[in-house]
Amino acid sequence: MVLRFRRMSAILAIALILGLLLTGCGGGNANTEKSATTETKEPYKIGAIFDISGTSSSLGIPERDTVQMIVDEVNKSGGINGHPIDLIMLDNKSNETESALAAKSLIQQGVLAIVGPSASGTTMAIIEAAQKGETPLVSAAASIRIVDPVKDRKWVFKTAQSDSLVAAKIATYLKSKGLTKIAFASMNNAFGDSGRAQFEKAAAQEGITILVKEKFEATDTIMTSQLTNIKKAAPQAVVAWAIPPSASSFTANFRQLGLTMPLIHSHGIGNKKFIELAGDAANGVVFPVGKLLVAEGLPDTDPQKAVLVDYATKFEANKFGTRNTFGGHAYDAIQIVIDAVKKAGPDKAKIRDEIEKTQNFTGISGVFNMSPTDHNGLSLDSMVMVEIVNGKWVLAK
Amino acid sequence: MKDLTRRKRLRHSLIVLFTLFIFSLPFLITNNYYLSVLVIIGIHTTVVVGLCLLMGYAGQISLGHAAFYGLGAYASGILTSTYGISPWLAILAGAVGTGLITYTMGIPIFRLKEHYLALATLGLGLIIHVIFVEEVELTGGPSGLSKGIPYLSIGKLVLNTDFRYYFLVWAIALAAIILANNVVHSRIGRALRSIHGSEFAAKSLGVDTDKFKLQVFALSAIYASVAGSLYAHYITFISPSPFGLMTSIQFVVMAVVGGLSSIWGPILGVTAVTLLTEALKSIIPQLIPQAGGEYEIVIFGLILVITMIFLPEGLTSGLLKLYEGWRYRKERADEIP
User: Fold this and answer.
1) Neighbours of B253 (CB within 10 A)
2) What is the pLDDT of residues A279-338, one digit of tens each?
3) pTM given for the model
4) Closest by Cβ to A128, choosing from B236, B278, B303
5) Of the CATH numbers 2.102.10.10, 3.40.50.2300, 3.40.50.1380, 3.40.50.1110, which one belongs to the domain with range A40-162+321-381?
6) Which residue among B142, B297, B306 places its CB closest to the CB of A189?
7) Is B197 an 8 Å CB contact of chain A?
8) Given A36, A151, B101, B134, which residue has the most CB atoms within 10 angstroms?
9) What one-character-per-residue DSSP string does A347-370 give?
């Protein structure tokens, strides 16, 4: 009896696996057929790949929510020129191999464009697929290498501010405060590494000396050894380049060791998680970031204010959590793609040309002016310096 | 004796049939995405065949194979993009280099047994991974190689499509399987199995267990290295993240799911795991709209647990046993009336 039960269970298990496999292959088609029959005009397929789970999920989740929200809105108001958007969203689990496969899957399904992924590594892994598949790709990741050299990135665009821009913003801020001898600490991954390289360049340009450079791991919770080295060098300010949770731990340790010089972070801490994890230690931290976080505090003359307030209100009304810049990058990416499809129709080459021609597009991360030599299109004024006061974001003076 | 020859013939005809099947697949499948999934399956199969040799036959575990996979990828990536060396030479250099590193590192490591050995290979893998991350000048650090990796080409034929790459990847995967098959059914294979059975017994019968273990460790690392090179030339971008511990564990899972005691295990294991991952990626959002990969991992884990409980020897022998059990019962049912 027991034996028979075991045998049955084994057969059931195999049947379950096979069943899942079969539905997996057939699933995609069934979905598109359904939407094709209920709508009058043929839907436009747009693909999205985000790092929804895994190490970059704090970026990918708001991005997924934002894109879904925008697409639902467009579909409710009649779609693009009457064509509903058929959004195909895939999770690459912050894994480069899966990212590449996801891109190939989307291109095979005939999407007009792809938005995402969230991180630089997962984006770099699909650039070849987008170039070869001749499908426009608008990434939400930051690294300048995504769109540079531009001659090898014909089909690739990005909406996040480049690290070089952030580094320049920090360097000019330091200079304006007269802080010229500083210490630099970065997390040991693609984000921190690229930040370090760009900041070294920007610092040299502004005549800022980096007294000491320290690194910490993304999973580290205690950075006292790095901070002790920094303390010994006695810099006028400390610049940290990391994302939470390590950015929060660094800040907490910074206060615990009784360091009193200004602490400047990068745009990597542009979500509420940083403040939640760092607690009171976060107060007084200054960092450059897109204007979204302080949207309501902007002067009314700011061209972005209306768009920012509108997006932030909707995002928070949908209970997606607190507004953050990553969702903003995804907002810009999907909006630019939708605008381009509106003008070009369902033709990938024309959509690419339209994305490249994007001018004066007022988005969340800034005002975009793309060109054949600049596939990002943002300038220094797309960012402001923000200070954390009593756990809230305030425009820094 | 006659039975043995018949078995050998069966084995050979199975391989020939499978080869024909593999090479006719791309003509039947026009979907580029399915082809790219098959290419990834082929690359992973090459790694897992090596791992099965080590785990199933020599009875030694390795949690560092993703790093050897990475060594091949970085050797190919750096030599071709920074130094402009021919990709084929780079693959060879990667394989030889990985073989040498693992052989020399294996000498102290293989003094350890069981869990300690697993931990040592884990450590070796971590050290290699740290080198990928820290040697910024050479490897580009955590951001990955900054220069593009060229495509492989045979003469004037550039292998820049999934269709073309498929043949190369599977030719190498099949070569790996056939080589492993020959090793397993040779004197060395018998020696390896005797180590798996009881190392002391093997030693007392005059088998040089240390030498064989080292050799098979190096061979399986070379397999991983070649697969890594193929990965680098396929994606044309590498960063340290695919060569970490999670990937090592994934390889072990693939090997165990497929079954360690058969040379067909790796193909079945890799195919089952990869197809399942890809299938779940598109099914789960349809069942639970807001779900991401975390649900995938839960379902995946469940299926793994079920397989391990009911088919502890992996899919290959599990399926064979089910079939034999069914045939036995049928025969008995036929006899009784």
Assistant:
1) 16
2) 999 999 999 988 998 998 888 899 999 999 999 999 999 888 888 888 999 999 999 999
3) 0.83
4) B236
5) 3.40.50.2300
6) B142
7) no
8) B101
9) -HHHHHHHHHT--SEE-SS-EE--
